[in-house]
Each structure stands twice: as C-alpha cells, then as structure tokens.
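Model: Ready when you are.
Researcher: Fold this.
Model:
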Amino acid sequence: MAKRFTAIILCFSIVLSCGLAARAGGNRLALDVTGFEPAPFGNGFFKGRFADQKWDARSMPVQFTIDNDNDPIPNPNGPPIISLATAKATVQKAMDSWNAVPTSFSNIQLTSERHSPIGGAGFDMVNEIAFQNIPELPIVGASFPVYLANDQYLNDGDDIDEDGDSDVSATITVAADIDHDGDIEFPAGFYKAGTILDADVYINTVDWTFSANDGDVVSPGSFDLQALAAHELGHSQGLGHSMDDQISDTDGSAATMFPFPSIDQRSLSSDDQAWISYTYPEGSASSGPAALQGGDVAFNEAYGFIKGEVRHGWQNEPLLGGCVYAINKQTGERVVSGFSGLNTQFYTNLNRAYVLEESFLDGHYVLPVPKGDYIIGIEPVDDRPVSSGIIDELTVFGAALGQNDFNEQFFDTNNSAALPSDAKSIHVNAGQTVDHIDITTAQNVNVSNYGELGNYLIANHAIFAQRIPGSQIAAANGGQDILIQAAAFHTAPAFDRSIVPIFAEAILTRGVVNPNLTANIDLNNPLDRISRFVGQDDDFAPFYFHNPKELGIKVKAGIATGEIHDLFILLKVGDGPFPGPSGFPPVIGIDDNPQPLLNSYISFDNGQTFFPIIYNYRASLWMSIPK
C-alpha cells in the first residue's frame, strides 16, 4: 500500500524558488521532474526525484550586487552602528571565507550596488543582497535561490525571467552582463536540473541589530553580520543546514551552516568545507573554473567517501532523513554530517504535494571525508537541536513516516554498538570510496516520562535525579530480555553559545520513593557511573552504559526478587568555576507539564536528601531488544 502525505513548500514551474531544503548530504534539494513522467493515478502528478542545487561552472565567478537604499544599515534597537561601506566589506569577508577553501572552485564576489527594485529583490537574474524591513518574515535572514526543475537546453534569446530582455546568449561561454543592463546572461547550452539561475539574500532589519565587531554583539537581538552573511551565502551556493552544533567534547562551536548563526560561525567548519568541496570539486575539469590553478588542491587528492544505507529497525524499511555523521577516531571531532535518502523518488504536482510509495523509499547516504580513521554514527532529526522542517524535505518525509523515533547509535558489524569506543573504525584514503557502511537502527524500548520542552533548570551544587519505575522496566519487551543501553539527558549551556555543557558526574543506580515523597537513592553502590559527563547543546546527551546485556539481566533479576524497586539516573552539577562569559553552570531541560509525576528529584546536600520537583526532567532510559 502506498504511504501518502502532503507537504506544501513554494511554487513550481520550469524554474522553481525554494527557501527550505538541503540535500541528503549537505546540499539544498532541487526538485527534478525531468521527462515529466505522469503518475499512474494522473491528477497532474509527475514522477520526481531530488537533485543538488548548485551553480553551473559557467557561472563562475557568481556576481552579487548589494542594495544601497539604506546607509547606514537600520538598527531598530538604537542608533545605527554600521555603514553601508562596512556592511559591504563584511559581506565580502564572508564570501572570501568560502572562496578560500582550496578544494572547492566556488567563487562568489560582491561586484556592484544598486537601489532595490520596487517590491524588493526577486527573480530578475540579479543576485542581490538586500537589507530590508520584512515583518512577515519571522527570521533574521533568508536565501531564495531560483533553479531549473528539469534538465534542459537554454537557447540563445530565451527570456527566462519574462521581463522582455534576453537572458541567454550564444556569443559567450561564461555568464556575464553583456548588455550592461544590470542582470546576468547565461551562455547557451545544456543545464542540469538544480542549476541555480538567481539567488537573493535577505537580511531582515525589522527586529534585529547587526554588527561587524565582536564587542557589539551583546544582546539576544544582536547578530554578527559576517557569520549571518556566511550562512546565507552558503545557501546561495546550494548548501543546506547542518546538524553540527558541537564539534567535540571540548569544542562547542557550530558549523557555519547550523541554522542559528552566532559569531563563532564566521569561520567554516570541516563540515562546511567538505560540502562546498563536494558541490564544487576542485580539479574535476581540465579547463575552466574547476581546473587546478595556483594554490588549489584537487578534491580527490584530499577527500574520500563513506557510503552506505540506513534502515529503520522497527519498520524494516529504508530510513529517510536520518543524520549520519563521521567522527575522527584520533581527535574525537565531528568532521562531517549528512542525511539519508539519496535516491528517494516520489510523485509531485504543480503545488508541491508529494505521494510516496514503499518502493520509492531510499536510505542511502554519502559523506565526503578527508583521509583518516572514522567512526560513523546516526541520530534522528527530532527537534533537538534542529527540527525536521528546518533541514529538508527528506527529514520532513522521515518525520511524517514516523521514522525519527530511534536512538543515537554507532556503526559496527552487528549494528549494535552503544559505546562509541565499541564502534568499528573505518579507514578512508584520499580518492577512495568505502561503501556498504550500512546501519539498521536498534529496536528501541525507551522509558521517557516527560512532555514537551517547557524550560531549563539551572542550579549550583545540585544533583538532578530522574526515577525510572521498576514496573516500566519489567514490562519492557513484554517482560522478555532487554538491553539497558544508556541514560539520555536534555542538556544545554546556560547562556553561552559555543560552550560545551560539562557535568561532574552521571550515575545509574537504584532507589525508592518514601511515603513523604522524598527519595532514598543509593549513591554508594552505583550500577554505572562516569565522571566529567559531556552534555550536548540543546540536545539529548547519552550516558552509555558499559555492559548493556549484563546490566539488563541484572536489573530484571533484581526487580523480580525485590532487590531493585526503581532505577534512578542522575546528573551532578560541578562546583565551578564554569566556562563562558556568564560563569553559570550547565542546565537540564524540564517539560511543560505542571502535573508532577513524582519522578523528578533534586538534592542540594550532596545526595543526602532528594526532594521532588513540580515539573519533569527531560531524561530517558534507553533500552533495546537484543538481536
């Protein structure tokens, strides 16, 4: 039976404008309906697939103009702080960060300025950067590339934007403004679906203050212009959003293409560099922009590929929109991430409605990685740290199909690794493809006694404790054997972006609730414990247990004999000092349910007494069915 659902995005025609979408890798998705093959059920639907959004090499360098209607740049929160000249220089710095990647032939330049046309920037074959007051746009910045929705020839004299002026010329081999009217003409020839024709960047001045100096970004309404421009210009080159907001256990900086720009995102991460190089691989042609020049490094001499397929363990079908990532085994740094579903097909109509069938689903992924040794992990796109709707259609598809209900895990030959140290190491040489790194998600049975995120709890010298009722553990998997794999806590830094949230300890132990509603929790004989527990930035951080199988057997037996009444999972806040400008300790998420379940407790006397709190910690016990 076909699985069907609808997702309205934007508009559809011979060209298409899109503000969502990232490739099942790091590229924005382009809708490709080449051939216009009708769906068997008709109704104006055609068979489609996704291609990468990107500029054709004949468009290099991609030329941008900046809106000069506002000088200085408006500041709704006070007096203006940056001039148009400063804004132009800052935008070019952001462009240069992309241009400087030696393994990519991408080249974007700010070449002119103009008064914004009536109605603002739009599809006019001019790539415009516009500072505009746009109340209806509830975000600080946006990029709207317009691209071809099918393979086609652009013929001499074609008027693509229908303004009465030719946009295609047979007399040129490189895109240029040959008639000196301000817009760009394309060389005549064949172009693939996904080819970008026009890309406009909007910087929204309705509520936000923009700065070009480090010290000026001081309030929640302030944004670093260079970081924001670098992010939006990444979209303008065809890159989508990244899930990478914490590089390692010691580095809390995010990829430039993480959806919420901050000042640390001025510099491109390894993820940003990998995907811009994958999209525009240096040395991939013998002539033109992709040919090697001084200072260039051939993509295939620096990068290899890890490829594979992801399947959903419970549904036993290809998994769409799972976030697959590679961690450098030597450094522990997260190098690159992408999304599964490379070859997904669908039926679509002129309104961007989608119909999926079982045979159309696909779980393949690809990761471009520098030479090295890697462990491969996968996590769901489940609203933390990013929602499925912010990434791309594939993550939206996966969420609609109920496929983002798995726990984070790592690749090994048995698809059962819990501890990262148990994951299989993958060695990749430059120019090499390591294929069949396939992952089937575990069949998880979690205990998660909380609701949606309501707020965060911050407390010095505290221990947060979440009760896991023994009755729920005993009933898991129908009372059969279970692997008790991890405790997961929704953590975050208090106020400081780019700071890794560190807790003094994470503990798994046993305990009991007293008649007066306090809890006795055994801290002297823990079932598992780790010092210096590394949290995640607004995401669930797993505390992986060392022996899930043996632990499952021991706990089940203890519950059966009455030796174990309940389990408790705990986070202990350190004594400080804490890193970051604020100096505050890390926080734990609490839900929005004011009805206490008597599962969440706090201690301020080093564990001598645990009192219940009104709300529920967002903390889970992760279990799975043995293979």
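Researcher: Now this one.
Model:
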Amino acid sequence: MPAIITKSFRVRNAKTFLTNLLGDSQGGPSAYDGTNYVYLAIGKPIPWDETNFGSDDTNPPDPDDDVATGFNVFRDGLAAGRITTTDMSLGIRRYDWTSGTVYTQYDDQDPTINGGTARFYVYEPNTGNIFKCLDNNNGAASTVRPTKPTSGLISSSFVLSDGYRWKFMAETPVSAQKFLTTNFAPILTVNLHPTASVPVGYEDQKKVQEQANTGSIESYIVSSGGAGFNKHSGPFTVKTIATRVSKTQFELSSDTILDSYADDSLIGATITVTHATTGNVTSGVITDYTQTNRVVVVDTDMDFFPDSPDTYSIGPTVWVTGDGVGANAYAICTDTGSIRQVKTLNANTGNSYTYATVQIDPQNKTTGSGATVRAIIPPPGGHGRDPAEELNGFNILINKTVNGAGTGNNYPVSNDYRVISLIRNALLSNGYSQDVLTPATSGSNWFANTESVHMSTYIVCNTTSLDHSDGRAMQKFDEWHSQVGPLPDDQIEGVNSGAKARVVEFNSFGNGILNITNVVANSSGGGFLPDEALRLTQTYTGYVPSTNNWIVANGHSDGWVNDDVTIPGTIFDVVQVGELQSGTGEVLYVENRTPILRSPDQRETATIVIEF
C-alpha cells in the first residue's frame, strides 16, 4: 500500500534523538537507570592501505554497518571525549542569501518544501538571521538583502522593493555559531512554556514564535491567468497617481492602456494603490471613471490620500473565502488581460484558514474568464511558530573540539587518526560494578565518567639500562631508533605473552608511557604482561630488524612485578588497557576520513551531521 514517512516524523525523530541521547536511559539489555553518556572517539592510526584492500589515505573506504566495525572502533581507538548538550544542535540545510538568485516561495502543496530540497528560506551570513520566502514575485530574482524588522514589527512579514515577501524566522547567536558549516546551520525552536527561560540571543525569535498568526494567507499562486479581463492597467510598477482630490477621488497619470478606456468603462474594477514611501497598500472598487484627465472615484475612503508618486494597479476584484476570516487580495494583470499575480492587500492576511477558495471577478464586472488562483495556507500555528519543524530541522549537528593533549594525557599528540565515531553508554574497564546505579562526575561507575578517556593501552616502561638475570642485554627503551625511542606506527611484540600492537607514541610527556593500539592477543587470548620484555618487530618505515631490540616494561629486571608504578602526579598500573570495555554500549556512528595529524598545540573540531 502507498505510504510516506512525513517531514514531521523525521523532525520529531531528530528532536527525540537530541533529547534522549543524553537523557535518562531508556532501558534495554544490561541497562540501568541513570544518565546516558555519549563519547566522540578518535582512532585508526594505521594507514588505510594496510587494512583495507583498494583504499588508501587519499581514498578512505566506506564504513560497513556490521559487528566487526563496532569492535574495530574499540580495537583501533585512541581516545574519546564526552559529548554534552552544548555540543549538539538541530540543523537545517544552509542556503546563504545571494543577490540574483531565484528562491522558491513557500507553498503548502509543494512536496519539495517538506522534502528538504527546495531553497524556500535563506541564511543571511552578515547577521546570522534566517528568513522564509513567502512570495518570490512571480519567480523573479531576489536583489534586495532581507534584514530583521524593527522590534515592533518583528513578527510581521515584509515586502522589499524587488517584490519578495520575507518572514524573519530564526537567529544564530554566538553560542550556536560553532555548528555552522558550509552546508548546514543550527536551528532552535524556543520553549514557550511560561516558566521556561529564553536562551541568550533568541529573544527576538521568541517574539516571532509567540506572535505567529495561525492560518494567515500571505501569498497566492496563479495556476492559470485566464484571458479577456478587459478592465485593467497592466503591470502596476510604471503606473502613478497624478494628483489627489480626496481619499475617494484622484487623477491618474497618462498611460497608453488607460487612455484607451472610455468614460465609465472601468466601473466595477478594483484599483489598488501602493504608497511610494511606506509601501502600504489600499484599495477600492471603481464607481465612476472620467476619461478626460483620467479621474477615478471609488466606493470607500482609501487608507491614505493617493498622490504622486504613489503607484497603482487596476484589475478584477478578488474574493477570498474559506474557514478563516479577514484575508484580502488584489489582482495584477498583464498588458493583454490575463492575471499575472495576486497579492496580499497590505496586512490583510486574515487568520484561522486551513483551506481557502480564491474567486476572480465573482460579480462578472469584466469579460474575462479562465483564471485559477490558489491561496497558500501556512503550517499549523502559522509561519514562525516552530522554526525547526517548518525549515526541515531533521538533522543533528554535533561539534566537538579535541584540544591539545586532552585531559590527563588521553589524546595522543604525535600521531594521526582516521576514524571518528560516537559511542553511547560503554562501560569502564576498571572498577565496573553493576550495583552502582548512579553515575558520578569522575572515577568509576557503571557508565563512563565525565572526563575524556583513553581507548588505547598504556604500558609504563623502563627508561634505564638494565641487565636481565638470564644474561640477555636489556636495552633501555629510548635506544630504539638511535636514542629516539619507539616511534609512531612501530610494531612491537611481547616476548613472554606473544601479544602484538602498534605504537601510538612514546614518552610524550616525560612519564615513560608507551601508548599502543590495535592490540592482538596471543593464541591463548592473553595480552601484554607486567615485567615482560618487548621487542621491535618492524619499524614505521617497514624495516624489519635483523636482531632483537629488547626493552622491559615495568622497570624491574629481576622479574618482580609491581602493579602500581608511581609517575609524577599519577599512579598507573604497569599495563593499563583502554578505559572503555570493548563491545559494551552502542556504536552509533562511524566516519572514515583522510589522516588528521595531531600535535600538542593543536585544536581539531570534529563536526558530525546525522540526517533523519
């Protein structure tokens, strides 16, 4: 059976994801009540061409959604930083306003509007304001930059000199600008509950949401212009008032079309006048027309005195009927007598419409026929009530900065990474207790703590020259590579355990720590052991040493194991595995990238876009 997933469903999923990602746990296998923890993890220092046939560092492979990929996130992981509420936002496609561009006007019957492919709104890069296009002046190019109205008119749509009607929808304060990318912009619907606080920078947007006009008709679409509407002035932009007499009587300037009309031949048509300074619009039905001097009399006082250089348009009367009230419009004809446009009459957009019928010349005051015009109905609540919903905010933007060396030497500073991932509710490797149900701000609990964590393995190494009791010469670690010590991507092996790994970095902060990843256990499933010798099996350049290069892991040559080795300011286990248990929690997102090289004074910002 035919069915669709609606835009609202997608936006609701995005909002729910944003709320629940860091909210209370929703249960499930091995889940306990408590706060959810989500980490942005970095990993994969090994070049792509070593692990993925046909790929290389300039052409990363597409990640697979399989079990192996989830385990590889932990196996290749380097470090992870906790995501907070300030690191996430709903997002919309970013379309910067550019002069000369034809923008799509909002249309309640255009499926591309809800599909996320139509440019029916713009991001104004100078101010960070977002505007919805309600009328594109019959498909003309936009040439006047939209700006936010003054406070008293902040919730009203407005027409610019290029004929475009815009509605101010949302703003991008400083706190949200970190989410901006070339293709996406953050969006927020302000909570309008009376007790809710207004986020800084969203004060004007809150007014727009509160004052949104339910069911107003801001624009019309002419599906068919018809023909034969013989009482008109053609396009109004070149037609001006000559002199005023009163609010019901005024003289029109000479015009080729107008001069062709005889006395009384315009009776029954509607004349609409636009004020040259304010842009206000007023109209009336013509009750008398004198061809000499082109004097018009209308049935009611105009809202202002029509006078030079105000412009006017004469056309058939427009009636708008439906389940709402108050919508008024006027028609603009072509020179040949078909309907070119139907425009909203000043601020008479009405309210409460969910459907409307537009009739052209319902009293048959002209000879025209065949025109079909459709009123554009706003979304529920009116334009501006829910910016995230209206502008297709079905994207999640995540922005996390990896800063310098990270907290507690968790981020490596002398290697690169190729994978960014999101991990939710992984358990700690040490200190895990299923009886601890309340997450703490630091230390061990059933979820991870609030600090960044290392996912690679740390080994505390000997940095003094020692002789082992069995007579083998135990070289100190920094004698590898001609006094440099182990280098990133060297391959090592435990002499006793047989475990293998790749070097991430060594002694970066003078603490004797060897940082390794991609640990491969021995045939019995065991990892590296305290007080075992390690040997270099292959250098980062691919060179395989002809003789063993030995080191000892815990600084003791006599085989005595000391599980706690004091490093300035810290106590470490001799072999400390990654802080997150492999295979626990949920891997929500995996992105393969070209290499990103780290350094101690470097900040990288990882931006993730998730579309629902």
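Researcher: Key takeaway?
Model: Confidence is low (pLDDT under 50) at residues 24-33, 436-446, 465-475, 552-572.
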